[in-house]
Amino acid sequence: MERYAGKRAVVIGGTSGMGLATAKLLRDHGASVLVTGRTGAAAEIARAQLGDRVDVVVSDVTSLADIAALGERAEERLGRIDAMFVSAGISRSATVEETSEELYDEVFDVNVKGPYFTIRRLAPLMTEGSGIVLATSVSNVKGLPMNSVYAASKAALRSMARTFARELLSRGVRVNAVSPGPVDTGILDRSLPKEAAEAAKRQMRDNNPMGRFGSPEEVAAAVLFLAFEATFTTGAELAVDGGVSPLV
């Protein structure tokens, strides 16, 4: 069933993880989709998985020139936009003492500056009744060690969702956030030695009320609910975290 046939969507950071899962779900339900990734290699991998029906664009979310070009590309390929998921983001773990200016600037450039100016550029293309969804994180409400900069960047996105929601009301555009908890995107396996990755995953499962990881597809379903179905909801943050933020 092509539930979103005729709909046009943009996924910022859609070449992996939750963004890729969202792009696949949109494609499978008939939407026209434009996806961005920061590198050519990531874009090629995503193209192989998404097929010709999805437009995959190399665009660096930290570059205002790339964001401007993305706006032109979206206008050319889609015309107008019915849904946008801003999923681009990076995580860097460090204690406060270990955090350098370079690490701080890198995280805020990708996680805060990029989404801010991307939404500013693409907002004029959003249709009345459309939805923008930002990816925050359970980290923005939990005092997790080694995550001060990342958590602060996601808290900034949470605030941004509220402000943009208020400012875009007059255009009929809703802005919400999805807050994932532990989601199995494969990042731990890629970034840690095997034993360390298994230990980290075991601890995260044990600390979660539902006793498991979420899947990227579960987050994608929440994103599309906020983007299309939650027509009387704006400025909200939906936790998709197995209960870890309210119960632990």
Describe the protein.
The chain has 248 residues and is an alpha/beta fold. The protein has one domain: Rossmann fold. 46% of the residues lie in helices and 17% in strands. The protein has nine helices and seven strands, in the order βαβαβαβαβαβαααβα. It has helices at residues 17-28, 40-50, 64-77, 101-122, 148-167, 187-191, 194-206, 216-229, 244-247; strands at 8-12, 32-37, 54-58, 81-86, 126-135, 174-180, 237-240. The chain has a seven-stranded parallel beta sheet with strand order 3-2-1-4-5-6-7, sandwiched between helices. α3 (64-77) runs parallel beside α4. The N and C termini lie far apart (38 Å). The mean pLDDT is 95.
What secondary-structure arrangement, pairings included, does this model have?
Layout: E1 8-12, H1 17-28, E2 32-37, H2 40-50, E3 54-58, H3 64-77, E4 81-86, H4 101-122, E5 126-135, H5 148-167, E6 174-180, H6 187-191, H7 194-206, H8 216-229, E7 237-240, H9 244-247
Parallel strand pairs: 1-2, 1-4, 2-3, 4-5, 5-6, 6-7
Helix pairs in contact: 1-8, 3-4, 4-5
Mean pLDDT: 95
Distance between the termini: 38 Å
User: How many discrete structural domains?
Assistant: 1
CATH topology: Rossmann fold
CATH superfamily: NAD(P)-binding Rossmann-like Domain
Strand content: 15-25%
Can you give the helix content as a percent range?
40-55%
Spans with pLDDT under 50 lasting ≥5 residues? none
**Which structural category fits the helices and strands?**
alpha/beta
Q: What is the tally of helical segments? A: 9
The major beta sheet can be summarized as:
7 strands, parallel
- The radius of gyration over CA amounts to 17 Å
